[in-house]
Amino acid sequence: MSKFDYPRLPRREIIGVLSESQIASVSDADLLNPTPDFVSSLYTHILIHIGCLQEEDFGLVEFADL
């Protein structure tokens, strides 16, 4: 059994954090049935938010780069 743990957040809290941080606007349905495009876009927005990517690179990100 792993000694590592991570916080488990309810979907509502995840949606709230993403919205309050102005990272992304997502719905409950987005998290329940995510599409590949949604996941790629969400990861890109998170990387831009934490400073790993520049906003002008948004359209140029390949999934393999994530």
Mean pLDDT: 84
By secondary-structure content and strand pairing, the structural class works out as mainly alpha
Roughly what percent helix? 40-55%
Please state the CA-atom Rg, rounded to the nearest Å: 13 Å
Q: Can you write the helix and strand succession as a string?
A: HHH
Distance between the termini: 28 Å
Shape, per Cα inertia axes: globular
Unreliable stretches covering 5 or more consecutive residues: none
Number of helical segments with 4 or more residues? 3
Range of strand content: under 5%
The description of the largest β-sheet is:
none
- DSSP E strands, number: 0
GO cellular component, one term: Ndc80 complex
Family: Belongs to the NUF2 family.
Keywords: Cell cycle, Cell division, Centromere, Chromosome, Coiled coil, Mitosis
Subcellular location: Chromosome, Centromere
What's the short story on this structure?
The chain has three helices and no strands.
Describe this structure in words.
The protein is mostly helical. The protein is built from three helices and no strands. The longest helix is centred in the middle third of the chain and has 14 residues, at 36-49. It is globular. 3% of the residues are buried. The model has no long low-confidence stretch (mean pLDDT 84).
